[in-house]
Amino acid sequence: MGICDGRVVIVTGAGRGLGRAHALAFAAEGAKVVVNDLGVGLDGRPGADSPAAQVVEEIRAAGGEAVAHGGDVATADGAASLVATAVDAYGRLDALVNNAGFLRDRMLVNLDEDDWDAVMRVHVKGHFLPLKHAAAYWRAASKAGREVTARVVNTTSGAGLLGSVGQGNYAAAKAGIVGLTLVASAELARYGVQVNAIAPAARTRMTEEVFGDLDAAPEDVSPLVVWLGSAASAGVTGRVFEAEGGRITVMEGWHAGPTVRREGRWSPAESGEATLKLLADARTPGAVYGAG
Ligand SMILES: NC(=O)c1ccc[n+]([C@@H]2O[C@H](COP(=O)([O-])OP(=O)(O)OC[C@H]3O[C@@H](n4cnc5c(N)ncnc54)[C@H](O)[C@@H]3O)[C@@H](O)[C@H]2O)c1
Fold this sequence. Notes:
By secondary structure, this protein is an alpha/beta fold. The protein has helices at about 15-30, 50-60, 75-90, 115-145, 160, 170-190, 205-210, 220-230, 270-280; strands at about 10, 30-35, 65-70, 95, 150-155, 195-200, 240-245, 245-250. The protein has a single domain (about 10-250), classed as Rossmann fold (3-Layer(aba) Sandwich). It is built from nine helices and eight strands. Helix 1 (about 15-30) runs parallel beside helix 2, helix 1 (about 15-30) packs across helix 8 (about 220-230) and helix 3 (about 75-90) packs parallel to helix 4 (about 115-145). It is globular, with a radius of gyration of 20 Å. The N and C termini lie far apart (about 50 Å). Nicotinamide-adenine-dinucleotide binds near residues 37, 38 and 155.
């Protein structure tokens, strides 16, 4: 008995790295998995291989059930056909793990518009479109009177939560995914859909150049993702978790800190004086990755 027996799960970017580990872990817990991967290079440019089919073979060899989907999750056709693949192959969809993505790291002064657009596109649009198509499926199921116990796990990053030097495009995209997660959690609760995000850290091709010493494995992150994707995580939604090695951390979001109010409008100098007093009482933000 697995905690995902009978569930149908999509994992995007599951041909390698974290997505592959999530797909294998879901299958090991009894899920039928749609393994999506476009097979692109580390910078998102066309790659030579088609890793989704290999992961499907691995799952089948271990006695599990899986189908491959090779579309681009950041296109309407790719996202629509992804959800259709799950429903055509297995008759239902229970969880979506948005994970696909790539990097184009540059300092802001050297960051080309193309590199900005490509990274925003794959992460923000590549989360939004599969989420939209899956949500439409679950809303229809809910309105048809079927019981929906659906889960979405999005993938943000410490870069999106705290900032990261040399990753302006990626940090903006990953912060956008947190906003999308909060809205989706609130909008979709009425249809039986829970939406959370993880900020993982693991040794993959994406991190081995930047953090050569990272020894946490992608497989260390997957147990939390599988639990969030299962019916067992009932009541948990709109949350962000960091996961690295054996560590799981609830990331606490923005809260109103020290505040001041006065009758009438401040002058700029008065507002500055008041703001400096507030900052003296406020928590210091966490350090930006790579700063100083
Ligand atoms: N590895 C880490 O420590 C780390 C840290 C923070 C966040 N993340 C995030 O985790 C996710 C997975 O990263 P990874 O380290 O496993 O990287 P990876 O490069 O090993 O795997 C990403 C996969 O996504 C696929 N992909 C890219 N664009 C796609 C598209 N448009 N459609 C379908 N598939 C596409 C790639 O072909 C690749 O197989 C990413 O969103 C990444 O930003 C990773």
